[in-house]
Amino acid sequence: NEIKIFSPATVANVSCGFDVLGFCLDTIGDEMVIRKTNEKGIKITKIVGADLPFETGKNVASVSALALYNDAKPDCGFEIEIYKNIKPGSGIGSSSASAAGSVFAINHLLGNPYNATQLTGFAMKGEAVASGCEHADNIAPALFGGFTLVKSTSPLQVLQLPTPKDLYVTIIHPQIEVKTSEARAILPQDIPLQNAITQWSNVGSLVHALHTNDYNLISLSLNDVVVEPYRSQLIPHFDLVKTEVLKAGALGAGISGSGPSIFALSKSKTTAETVAKAMTQVFTNTTIAFNTYVSKI
Ligand code: HSE
Question: What is the ipTM of this complex?
Answer without folding.
Answer: 0.98
